[in-house]
Design a protein that fits this description.
The chain is an alpha/beta fold and about 350 residues long. The protein folds into 2 domains: about 60 residues; about 290 residues, Rossmann fold, CATH 3.40.50. The chain contains 14 helices and 12 strands. A 7-stranded mixed beta sheet has the order 1-12-11-10-2-6-7, with helices on both faces. It has a 3-stranded antiparallel beta sheet with strand order 5-9-8. Helix 1 packs antiparallel against helix 2 and helix 6 runs antiparallel to helix 7.
Length: about 350
C-alpha cells in the first residue's frame, strides 16, 4: 500500500519538480507507517535514492531523445584565436536552440561584400561589388575617379566608431545618391562583370562553397542581403557556382532602359537601413514563417539588423567578421554580434556550427 501510494505521489508532480516530490514522500513516510521515526527515516532515505534513480533515468532518456547539450568548449572551431564571444552562456544557449530546431526551422541571412567574399588576400583589400563594376571598360571617362573620390570621403565615416548610427545613415544616403547620379546616360553590357571577376580573381571566403552546398542539400533557404551592387553580387556567385536554387538576393540592381543605365531599381539599400528594408521586404520572410531560427552573417554594424523582418524569431545567432580598425571597433562589434571573428578569412566557424545543426 505504501509503495503504491508513493508511486501515486510521483505521478502527480511534474517530472522536473523533484524537490516537491521529495517533500511529499517524506510526509507520506511519516503518516502512512506506524513505525519508529528511525525506521521511517531509513525508508525515506531509500525512497530518496529511488527518486534520484528516476531523475537520472529521465535525464538519460532526454539525452537519447534530443542529443547531448552542446558545450562551447567542445566546439573546436570556437576555440580559435580569432574568435571573440562576449556572453558565452547566451551563445551556448542559442547554439543549442538552433541544434534542437534542426534544419527545418533554420534560415540563413548573410551580407555579401567582405562577408561571403574575403576581406583581403595577403593584406590586399578585395574588390567590393561596386568596385567590380568600376573596373569595367565600358564606363564613361572620369567615372572611376569620381566613384573612388566618393569612397575615400564616405568610407571612413561608415566605419568610424565615434559617429552615431543616425548620423552615419544620413551620410550613407548622400553617398548613394551621389553615386546614383554617376550611373546615368551610358550604355552598359552586363556580361563584362564576369570578365572583371575572372581577371581580378574575386574570391569567396574559404569554405563558402561548402557552406552553401550543404545548405542546398539540407534545403535551407539563404538570403544574401547586400547594400552593394546586386548585378555584381549575382555575377560573383554565378562565377563560383554558388548561385544555387535556395539562394535569394536582395540588393541594389541597375535600372536599364534598353542598354542604357538609369540609376538603381527601387529604393536604395545602404549599410544602415538594412533593418528598415528587412521589414519592407518581409514578404520574403512571410514565406518562411515556420523558419524561426536564424544564422546571420555580416561585416558591418548595420548587418546586425538584417533579421528584423523575421516574424517572431525563436533564436538568432549573429556572427560578425571584423578586419578594419580592430582595436577601435571591437567593443562596438561585440555589442551587436554574438560571435566576432577577427581577421578570419574562412567560413570554418560557420561550417562548424552548421555541422551541429544540419
Amino acid at each position: 500500500m505504501f509503495i503504491r501510494t508513493a508511486f501515486d505521489v510521483l505521478e502527480t508532480v511534474e517530472v522536473t519538480d523533484y524537490l516537491r516530490a521529495d517533500t511529499h514522500l517524506y510526509a507520506l513516510t511519516r503518516c502512512c507507517l506506524s513505525v519508529p521515526i528511525a525506521t521511517a527515516l531509513e525508508r525515506y532515505v531509500a525512497f530518496r535514492n529511488f527518486l534520484a534513480y528516476c531523475k537520472s533515468l529521465v535525464n538519460n532518456m532526454k539525452e537519447l531523445t534530443v542529443g547531448k547539450r552542446v558545450k562551447l568548449e567542445d566546439v573546436e572551431v570556437l576555440l580559435n584565436d580569432s574568435v571573440r564571444i562576449h556572453d558565452q552562456s547566451y551563445v551556448e544557449d542559442v547554439i543549442n536552440s538552433l541544434v534542437i530546431g534542426g534544419r527545418d526551422k533554420l534560415q540563413i541571412i548573410s551580407d555579401f561584400d567582405r562577408t561571403l567574399t574575403k576581406q583581403h588576400v595577403d593584406g590586399k583589400p578585395t574588390l567590393s561589388s561596386f568596385c567590380i563594376f568600376s573596373q569595367c571598360s565600358q564606363l564613361p571617362t572620369g567615372y572611376k575617379e569620381q566613384d573612388a573620390a566618393l569612397c575615400r570621403h564616405y568610407r571612413p565615416i561608415e566605419i568610424d566608431p565615434h559617429i552615431s548610427r543616425e548620423e552615419k545613415a544620413k551620410h550613407m544616403v548622400n553617398w548613394y545618391q551621389e553615386a546614383e547620379k554617376l550611373l546615368s546616360g551610358f550604355d552598359f553590357r552586363i556580361e563584362e562583370l564576369e570578365q572583371v571577376i575572372r581577371k581580378e580573381g574575386v574570391e569567396l571566403r574559404e569554405g563558402s562553397n561548402r557552406m552553401l552546398e550543404s545548405l542546398r542539400t539540407a534545403d535551407v533557404p539563404v538570403l544574401v542581403f547586400s547594400a552593394g551592387l546586386g548585378d555584381s553580387v549575382s555575377a560573383v556567385l554565378r562565377y563560383h557556382n554558388a548561385l544555387l536554387p535556395n539562394v535569394h538576393i536582395i540588393s541594389n540592381y541597375l535600372q536599364f532602359n534598353g542598354l542604357q543605365v538609369n540609376g538603381f531599381q527601387g529604393d536604395i539599400i545602404h549599410s544602415f537601413n538594412k533593418n528598415q528594408h528587412a521589414v519592407e521586404k518581409s514578404d520574403y520572410f512571410k514565406v518562411l514563417a515556420c523558419r524561426k531560427n536564424v544564422l546571420l552573417l555580416g561585416d558591418e554594424l548595420g548587418d546586425a539588423g538584417m533579421a528584423d523582418g523575421v516574424q517572431n524569431p525563436d533564436s538568432v545567432l549573429k556572427i560578425g567578421f571584423l578586419y578594419d580598425r580592430v582595436e577601435d571597433r571591437l567593443e562596438e562589434f561585440q555589442n551587436h554580434f554574438d560571435i566576432v571573428l577577427i581577421d578570419d578569412q574562412t567560413m570554418d566557424v560557420v561550417n562548424g556550427i552548421l555541422d551541429l545543426i544540419l
